[in-house]
Amino acid sequence: MESSPIETAKENQVDPYRYLLWVLRNAPALSQTDAAWAEQLTPTSAPDECRIPPK
Fold first, then answer.
1. Is position 45 within any domain?
2. Phi, psi angle pair for 41, to nearest 5°
3. What tens digit of pLDDT does each residue of 2-11 get?
4. CB neighbours (10 Å) of residue 33?
5. pLDDT tens for each residue of the chain, 55 residues long
6. Burial level of 1, CB count in 10 A (0-12/13-18/19+)?
7. How far apart are CA 44 and CA 34, in angstroms?
8. Rounded distance between C-alpha atoms, residue 27 and residue 15, angstroms
9. Is residue 54 part of a domain?
10. Considering the entire predicted model, what is its pTM?
11. Residue 31: domain span
């Protein structure tokens, strides 16, 4: 069974809300400039601003 991007984000200590905002902001520009744009938007590729800070 495949996991959703949200579940993958949680498993990688990425805040789902911040991750989705980042994807929605960056997907349009990346899709026009890079053939492998979707691979750059995976939760494992999310920038530090999307990460959940350690407690």
1. no
2. -110, 15
3. 678 889 999 9
4. 7
5. 567 888 999 999 999 999 999 999 999 988 888 788 888 889 999 999 999 988 7
6. exposed
7. 18
8. 18
9. no
10. 0.82
11. 1-38
